[in-house]
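Note on ligand handling. Small-molecule inputs were canonicalized before submission; formal charges were left as drawn, and no protonation-state enumeration was performed. Where a ligand contained multiple stereocentres, the stereochemistry in the source SMILES was retained. For pyridoxal-5'-phosphate, this procedure yielded the string shown in the input block below.
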Amino acid sequence: MADPLLEWRKEFPALDKTVYLISHSLGAMPRRTRDRLNEYADVWSTRSIRAWDEGWWEMPLTVGNLVGKIIGAGEGEVTMHPNVSICQSLIASCFDWTGPRNKIVSEALNFPSNLYIHRQLESLGARVITVPSEDGITVPLEKLLAAIDQETLLVSVSHVIFKSAFIQDLHAIAQRAHQMGALVVADIYQSAGTVPLNVRELDVDFATGGSVKWLCGGPGAGYLYVRRDLWPSLEPRLTGWMAHRNPFDFDPGAIEFAGSAFRFLHGTPNIPGLYAARSGYEIINAVGVENIRAKSVRQTSLLMELAEKAGYRINSPRDAALRGGTVTLDVPNGYEVTQELLRRDFLVDYRPGAGIRIAPHFYTKDEELEMVVEEIQSLQRAAAAS
Ligand SMILES: Cc1ncc(COP(=O)(O)O)c(C=O)c1O
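Structure output:
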């Protein structure tokens, strides 16, 4: 049966030159992104300082609106930042960690940046509880829920685990957190753009992610959603002049925060990064995350079948409902195999303790999945013979 999503391949020049299976790490660059970067250069050189009034100033919100459509946030509820690490630090900086409610509950499989930031809060009084994984793939939901108690301030979890692609039940986590009086931060980097999600329906308080991966938006375009009714109570310590109610008064006194989501900004935004990111969001919105997910489930299942036939252990959930867009294969000498695959223009990556991560996206052909498994097998045969 013809796959209508393959029509999009012509929008991504890199797909002609490589077997592109790395969208969990760096999504392919859309053809139009080059035009967008030229547009940025033109605006800078011709409009100069006037560009701020002609769109640049508002870009952290206007670009955020494109992300908002993908993740189910309302207009004006998503702000753009350089990366997720900044967003996580910004969220953490909203809270007082010296009181009895000072726990952060997370999973040991959370992205290390998030865990580093949590642990740095210990010097301010925070207590960090990380729930271990029993198999290196999944996070035991019951244990995570049980760790959330009346002393928990924040529950900080990844929607999809970066190493294994395990999908966590964010709704159940948010329900338990709210029953206990805690707030939830969801890192949705590995779900947004490949697993349908709606931050409002999931009832998370904060969500953050970036654009480098499934959104095909390139570096420098992290995003932050904050539940609107929390805004008045949040005064980040990680802040700057753009968060001021009247930034152009340049008042040297204590900051008075903007009423809008601008209160979550800090300094000058990464304008070229925001120009670059827009095409990816437009394409993901046009393709539709439901369509992307249907294809992803079919292709990750196919990939797992091929890998199993070849005799490789799979370090991702078998159940498609619990699996995001990536399949991790435990292949002997995985690091070396990955280096050789890259040399041969098969784009994948390797994570220690997990294996080779391979990700089809909406632009992937079934044959490419067959090709990568065959290539891994042939590399292993060659290694065994030498
Ligand atoms: C789930 C997850 N969170 C965070 C990051 C890192 O985000 P940033 O580099 O934007 O801080 C990554 C990947 O790089 C990731 O996979």
